[in-house]
Specification:
By secondary structure, this protein is α/β, with parallel strands linked by helices. It contains 13 helices and 13 strands. The longest helix has 21 residues, at 85-105. It is globular, with a radius of gyration of 21 Å.
Length: 369
């Protein structure tokens, strides 16, 4: 008998892609896709069960299909359809609690994989240059998806203690981008003009949606010799990009906003439904975040195909040209940067657009290695 894999969140594009891919693996016998709504895309030969993981009925699904591997992808920052923030939080937190409770009672479950986020580290002015999996955050996220992810991981750790016989793998993904990306940051980068925090140019990391599928596959199978498919792993493409570099590559101009006014701008954007400019999103676009991926490579045995820059380039192509040609915008910015007084002077040590405490670009590009 092959593996029986249950995947949550299959109504989303990423969940649907993973279901279609995992069922092609020779060691997988059946794939059960679960979501509270019917998916608009096909799931190949997988069985779809319409079930809300917030309800105890998910336990019956595990029992009826003798599931041995659970891949929990229904942890997200964006609502599906008409659902709002309350629905998203309930699915993330209450849904995870119910799913873990069902797995705890199921004797057939042997492996549990959860899609988490590097947002659990938060974003603060005194953060370390690079986070490792064991680095405690300087400031815990106070709300939004980041706080959900922290709570989800807390419940998963409790489950791992109660069921030591189950292999548990937590994948902390950097910002996921690609042609089909569906996230608050993807919505932000799709705006014609990007509001930024005046005086700050944060470092950002991205992971391509194709690499997300590949690493989830690795985590859901038995480990290869010399690797370990349990534990907590940061997942990100090599390298970093500054927010200013992202805007130039998109061809989208930025509008610097003084920090005290950023919250008001975020509220206005949420009101018109443009993007989720939550406090945690604002902190990310102020202070940035970079994680080390040594454990991903050496322990999990995964090497992403896309770097951070390549991931962003693929995303930018899918969004089409911006208001300004990227080459023209880059040349204009470079000319401004060359002015003697640009960015507060060459002697400031921060360079154009960098806030206090931001390292130089050479440090940014090599910091996570």
């Amino acid at each position: 008998m092959g593996k029986v894999v249950l995947v949550t969140g299959v109504a989303r594009q990423l969940g649907g892609r993973f279901v279609r891919r995992i069922q092609r693996d020779p060691e997988v016998d059946r794939v059960i896709g679960v979501d509270a709504v019917d998916p608009a895309h096909h799931l190949g030969g997988a069985d779809f069960v319409r079930a809300d993981i917030r309800q105890p009925a998910i336990a019956r699904v595990l029992a009826e299909h003798a599931v041995d591997t659970v891949v929990h992808m229904d942890v997200t920052g964006t609502p599906l359809g008409s659902g709002g923030r309350t629905t998203v939080k309930e699915t993330n937190v209450i849904g995870t609690m119910q799913l873990l409770g069902a797995c705890q009672k199921s004797p057939s479950v042997q492996r549990f994989v959860v899609k988490s986020s590097t947002s659990v580290y938060g974003s603060a002015p005194r953060d370390p240059a690079v986070f490792t999996e064991t680095t405690p955050p300087k400031s815990l996220p106070s709300g939004g998806f980041a706080k959900d992810a922290v709570e989800v991981e807390g419940y998963v750790r409790g489950f791992a203690r109660r069921r030591p016989d189950v292999a548990v793998c937590v994948l902390r993904f950097a910002n996921i981008l690609g042609p089909c990306a569906d996230s608050p940051l993807a919505e932000y980068f799709s705006m014609p003009v990007l509001p930024t925090v005046f005086g700050y140019d944060p470092r950002l990391q991205f992971v391509h949606e194709d690499d997300v599928i590949d690493v989830l596959r690795i985590a859901s199978h038995e480990p290869r010799r010399g690797t370990l498919n349990s534990g907590t792993f940061n997942v990100a493409g090599d390298g970093v990009l500054l927010l200013s570099q992202c805007s130039r590559r998109l061809g989208r101009p930025t509008v610097p906003v003084l920090l005290p006014a950023v919250t008001w701008v975020g509220s206005a954007l949420r009101t018109v439904g443009v993007t989720d400019f939550s406090p945690e999103q604002i902190r990310l676009l102020t202070h940035g975040r970079v994680v080390r991926t040594t454990q991903m490579r050496e322990t999990l045995g995964f090497a992403p195909k896309f770097t951070t820059a390549e991931t962003f380039a693929d995303f930018a192509r899918s969004r089409g040209p911006g208001l300004l040609p990227p080459d023209t915008l880059a040349r204009a910015v470079d000319r401004i940067a060359a002015l003697p007084l640009a960015g507060g002077g060459r002697g400031s040590g921060h360079g154009p657009g960098r806030g206090p405490g931001q390292p130089t670009q050479s440090a940014e590009e090599g910091a996570h290695r």
